Amino acid sequence: MEFLVEFDVTVPEGTPESEVNYRERAEALAAARLVDAGHLVRLWSLTGTPGESRAVGLYRADSEAELAALIGALPLSDWMHTVTTPLEPHPNDPVALRALGSAPNGSEG
Question: Which homologous superfamily does the CATH classification assign to the domain defined by 2-100?
């Protein structure tokens, strides 16, 4: 299954900069492991207010429960608010259509 996950990270006021830096480095390593395992497919930063950290990612997992466990294990998880949306294939998905060898307008691709 694929999921769109929106992340909003808020560092608690008064958190030492050293802890923030440590968790951010650990988060990058955890993300790399999720990529290697095939769970994290894409990740984008969202522009916002200075000091905010917002992102949206495309994830793969066998279930919502597995995804929740993966996200819950991230080093920044207790500073995150997430919104997860399960995704279903769309009949006009251009990637799927290319894989079938046809274009959306019915012509061969």
Answer: Dimeric alpha+beta barrel (3.30.70.1060)
